[in-house]
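SEQUENCE, STRUCTURE TOKENS:
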Amino acid sequence: MSDMNEMEETLAELGAYIAQKMPDVGADQVIAFGDLSITVTRDNLLALVRFLHDDSRLRFVSLIDICGVDYPARPERFEVVYHLLSPMRNLRIRLKVCTDEATPVPSLCEIFPGANWYEREAYDFYGILFSAHPDLRRLLTDYGFDGYPLRKDFPTSGYVELRYDEERKRVVYEPVKLAQEFRSFDYLSPWEGVNYVLPGDEKAD
């Protein structure tokens, strides 16, 4: 319990130090799930990240992850979540930025070159845009993919399937074809009275 209180005190001191040094950022802070979580606007994101990276007392020099979260009911439906690590302080920090489908978030590639593929993944799966990104294109889906598969309103089933066409040397979309008819299974084993004839049982007759 004392370790938990000590960690919360450390995170509270970290938040107070950031607020003191960056008063113009106007970020909301909360301690959640063992990390300091800061919600910042798009306009202030780069300034805050550069401060966290460069400040001699903080040195959050490692980018752990960038991911998207979709809240369709919100006016700005997406949250872009950043996790940074300070090896010097042995602390993590979480940053959150809200945006919509049309407004880009500043890219962190200038500060963290490793942000490149994280941001491409967020664009590929959510359609989140990043300004000043050097190569913002799909990463895991194919070039002709329609939609963004991790959005909450993305359909879970459809009427087309994709495959690689050897003749055309590219991925193609086609209507779904079933190799066999749908079958019903009763999920009962032969020992529960189902009239299955197992191999070898026909000799018993």
Remarks:
- The mean pLDDT is 87.
- The first helix runs from residue 2 to 21.
- DSSP finds three helices and nine strands in the chain.
- The longest strand covers residues 62-70.
